[in-house]
Specification:
- The complex is a heterodimer.
- By secondary structure, chain A is an alpha/beta fold.
- In chain A, about 40% of the residues lie in helices and about 30% in strands.
- Chain A has one domain (about 1-250): P-loop containing nucleotide triphosphate hydrolases (Rossmann fold), CATH 3.40.50.
- In chain A, the strands form three sheets. In chain A, strands 6-9-10-3-11-12 form a six-stranded mixed β-sheet, with helices on both faces. A four-stranded antiparallel β-sheet of chain A has the order 2-1-4-5, covered by helices on one side.
- In chain A, a hairpin with a 2-residue loop joins strand 1 and strand 2.
- By secondary structure, chain B is α/β, with parallel strands linked by helices.
- Chain B has nine helices and 22 strands.
- Chain B has helices spanning about 5-10, 25-40, 55-60, 115-120, 125, 140-150, 385-390, 395-410, 420-435; strands spanning about 60-65, 85-90, 95, 110-115, 155, 165-175, 180, 185-190, 195-205, 210-215, 215-220, 225-235, 240-250, 255-260, 265-275, 280-290, 295-305, 310-320, 325-335, 340-350, 355-365, 370-380.
- The longest helix of chain B has 17 residues, at about 395-410.
- The mean pLDDT of chain B is about 95.
- The chains are: A alpha/beta, B alpha/beta.
- The interface of A and B includes residues 75, 81, 82, 103 and 141 of A.
- The structure holds adenosine-5'-triphosphate and magnesium ion (MG).
Chain lengths: ~250, ~425
């Protein structure tokens, strides 16, 4: 589904990603961990097509297509979804309106008819249940004045509606209370399909108890310095990151 | 430049502007003298420094005089909204058009009529209001309007009446308006404890024509009364529009204004609100959408004369092309007006490199125990928000349209009456869609 090879990216003059290799197959869950500033969000944003980053080397194949050639909206239409670490506020547009606009744009790109607001309400109803939320949230402006946890839950609601093939969750767990974490994680699990894949960026083993990864990768200073199974996350929890950085001789 | 108007004034015997009630004649005379003496404002006049009125001053204008052609209600479809029962007075090229107007079911104590009709039949009840709120020495344009006013809408809402359906005063200009000037004059009086909603629209059936509209609207909101007043300015983009809304508010009253402007080669709107007593609330919202070479100018003035009043003002602009917006917001707080709570905001969104904004808040505060703030911003669409929307599947243009719409919707959402809010939404959408 996703094949990243030697990916390098810069923001302005600084190189942030220094050669990333990562292969994700359909049905898999990959966890990406690593110290603050190691480049996890940059990787996620580059995959979503954030214009602030320039790709300076390597390649990304997504479902056989060159992902880096696609505009951000084309990636979304092709099934890539990034749950932002810092979701953006859009005052003046209701959550319902925004989400329907997104839903319809994606439908249009597949040659499907747009749905009107009544039909969309039906779709929403189920998805709201998935994240255990009341419909009132839909008439509020997108993320405007939402608490940190509400913003994260809203990202998962969007994901539930847009039904991506490749979901990238950037620290969706941070800022969530224990109940919300459970709700969000179970939402993500329910959305899993044999033909979809998930990349979860997280700092905490706790989330991985709910969303059990097939692989865990450690990103440090723009490179994946270690990959392993889910037990790697436990080891990181116990030992931190330093031993890894020393082991591969990464200068910080 | 004043002579043609003086001549028109002197030659008006036997015309519509001549046969008003007796009390009106000296007012007209004084206004004409005032205009003849001052002439049009010049570039040295601080109040008009940023408003390029040259084409008005140099133009040669004929008085607008209605329409000779047939005009069907269906031609007005895109300007009329809300419920069919709403009372709508239609004026075509400055003249009242009875056949196109409709007066819906009105509660007792409410009078809606054209100015000429009201002067004939309700002269006494409007004598204490007409030309009493808007002083002719306020501006030469107001003086000119007062001297030559002929038609407009009069809405009188009696004490305690809840006028649950709004009244729409619709000024239409047609191709025949080219080269003409109209001086619409509206009067809205909401008596003690009454509640009403009035919409004032300026629209055109001749989008490319140049004409000039010089309207004045006087508003009196009595003690404990409530009024929502929406002004929709959709003139031709080749037209000139210089208008004044003058509001007097009494104790415990609530006035909310929404001034929407998207038309005019040059469009200026002055909104002056006097808070004459205690415990008054005034909400003033504005939205202007400009493109091409348009110049849209909003001047507002709020007079806090007495204690314990609140005024809240938000004007927003979306500018495209090489258009220009002017915002000048004055807030005067008199020494007596303690506990004043006044907030003023002007925010501008530039969609192009060529667009320009001159924004100037002007707070003159002479009381010490007050809460007064103001702020002005000029910015562009947020890159992060654009990317966020694109990452959800919206194209760049759809994302930009959405964010621009959002910027406008934040202020349009303040309109209390839902059908009016929806109409404003529609207009914004339509304009953004045509980009
Ligand atoms: N747009 C940018 N411009 C300049 N520097 C940037 C930009 N984006 C990221 N960086 C820098 O790149 C490095 C990696 O940032 P990134 O956000 O990817 O880290 P992260 O691994 O997600 O960290 P965290 O765990 O704190 O979220 C940091 O040093 C950061 O300051
Ligand atoms: Mg991060």
């Amino acid at each position: 589904m996703l094949e990243i090879k030697g990916l390098r990216a810069t923001a302005g003059d600084t190189e942030i990603l220094k050669g990333i290799d990562l292969t994700v197959r359909a049905g898999e869950v990959h966890a990406v961990m690593g110290p603050n500033g190691s480049g996890k969000s940059t990787l996620a944003q580059v995959l979503a097509g954030h214009p602030a980053y320039q790709v300076t080397g390597g390649s990304v194949l997504y479902q056989g297509r060159d992902l880096l050639e696609l505009e951000p909206e084309e990636r979304a239409q092709a099934g890539v979804f990034l749950a932002f670490q810092y979701p953006v506020e859009i005052p003046g547009v209701t959550n319902a309106y925004f989400l329907r606009a997104a839903y319809n744009e994606i439908r249009k790109s597949h040659g499907l008819e747009e749905v009107d607001s009544m039909d969309f309400l039906d779709i929403l109803e189920d998805k709201l249940k998935l994240v255990e939320w009341e419909p009132e949230i839909m008439s509020r402006a997108v993320n405007a004045g939402f608490s940190g946890g509400e913003k994260k839950r809203n990202e998962i609601l969007q994901m539930a509606v847009l039904e991506p093939k490749l979901a990238i969750l950037d620290e969706t767990d941070s800022g969530l209370d224990i109940d919300a974490l459970r709700i969000v994680a179970s939402g993500v699990n329910k959305l899993r399909r044999p033909d979809s894949a998930t990349i979860v960026v997280t700092h905490y083993q706790r989330l991985l108890n709910y969303i059990v990864p097939d692989y865990v990768h450690v990103l440090s200073n723009g490179r994946i310095v270690k990959s392993g199974g889910k037990e790697l996350a436990l080891e990181l929890e116990a030992r931190g990151y330093e031993w890894l950085e020393e082991a591969v001789g990464v200068a910080s | 430049m004043t002579e043609p108007f003086v001549q028109e004034f002197e030659a008006r015997a036997g015309t519509a502007t001549a046969d008003g009630p007796e009390w009106l004649e000296p007012i007209r005379q004084a206004a004409m003298e005032r205009f003849a003496r001052s002439g049009f404002p010049t570039a040295r006049d601080e109040e008009w420094r940023f408003t390029p009125i040259g084409p008005i001053v140099q133009g040669s204008w004929r008085a607008a005089s209605g329409t000779s052609g047939e005009l069907g209600r269906e031609q007005l479809d895109s300007f009329i909204f809300g419920h069919p029962d709403w009372t709508t007075l239609v004026f075509v090229n400055g003249v009242f058009h009875d056949a196109l107007s409709s007066v819906g079911p009105l509660p007792g104590g409410v009078r809606v009529a054209s100015l000429a009709e009201a002067l004939r039949s309700d002269g006494a009840s409007i004598e204490c209001h007409l030309a009493r709120h808007a002083p002719v020495d306020g501006s030469p344009f107001t003086a000119l309007n007062t001297a030559l006013m002929r038609e407009g809408g009069v809405v009188l809402v009696g004490a305690g009446v809840d006028l649950d359906m709004p009244v729409h005063l619709l000024q239409v200009s047609t191709a025949e308006a080219a080269g003409t000037v109209a001086h619409p004059r509206n009067l809205i009086v909401v008596e003690r404890g009454a509640r009403a909603s009035v919409i004032e629209s300026y629209v055109t059936l001749a989008p490319g024509r140049s004409y000039w509209t010089n309207p004045v609207t006087e508003v009196a909101v009595a003690a404990g009364a409530w009024l929502e007043h929406t002004r929709i300015q959709r003139e031709s983009e080749a037209a000139f529009h210089v208008g004044l809304t003058q509001v007097d508010q009494a104790r415990d009253s609530h006035y909310r204004s929404f001034s929407f402007a998207m038309g005019g080669a040059l469009a200026r709107h002055n909104l002056h609100v006097r808070l004459n007593d205690e415990n008054i609330e005034s909400l003033m919202y504005g939205l202007y959408l400009t493109r091409g070479e348009q110049v849209v100018d909003n001047h507002t003035a709020i007079y806090h004369d007495r204690p314990n009043c609140r005024s809240w003002e938000v004007y927003k602009g979306i500018l495209d092309g090489r258009s220009r917006a002017v915002f000048n917001g004055k807030v005067f707080v008199q020494p007596e007006a303690q506990k004043t709570d006044a907030k003023q905001t002007n925010r501008n969104l530039l969609l192009s490199d060529g667009a320009r904004v001159d924004t100037k808040p002007q707070l003159e505060i002479f009381a010490d125990d007050v809460k007064c703030t103001h702020g002005a911003t000029v910015g562009r669409l947020d890159d992060l928000a654009r990317f966020y929307a694109r990452s959800r599947g919206l194209s760049t243009s759809a994302a930009e349209r959405l964010l621009t719409y959002a910027f406008a919707a934040e202020v349009a959402g303040e309109v209390a009456l839902v059908p009016v809010r929806e109409e404003l939404d529609r207009l914004v959408f339509e304009r953004l869609g045509s980009r």
